[in-house]
Amino acid sequence: MAQPETGPIAAKPHIKFDPDGKPFIEAHRCRACGAVTADARLACPACASRDGFDAFRVKQTGKLIAYSIVKRSYPGIATPFVSAIAAFDGGLALKANLVGVGFEPEAIAPNIEVRLTFNEALGRTDAEGRAYVGYQFEPQKS
User: Fold this and answer.
1) What is the pTM of this model?
2) What is the pLDDT of residue 135?
3) Rounded to the nearest 5°, which phi and psi values hold at 12?
């Protein structure tokens, strides 16, 4: 679905909105080799095929595959935070902040199940005051 003309806007091109205005991640699967990418491309980054891609909605559950606890950053970026990469059902891997955990390595279990959640992209807005929508990971509650 196209970007709504009112209401929040996507902070990244692979964030889409359903007819109810709820955000989701749209990924693209290569028709030739099955590789998955977040953004639409002219050619597959895995096999270089130009046979096209099939878009699909990414499930919001996945597994944490790597993280880094960031304790120093650029001015204006609040620290600490956990920068993480998670693999989601369907084959897409995304990078985002992992929230709801401590900032020490022993606070983050390896290979934990995570859930993709959407937020207001640090409160940033465009020139018309429309809020951007970003995403983050949270540990999945069992």
Assistant:
1) 0.85
2) 96
3) -135, 150
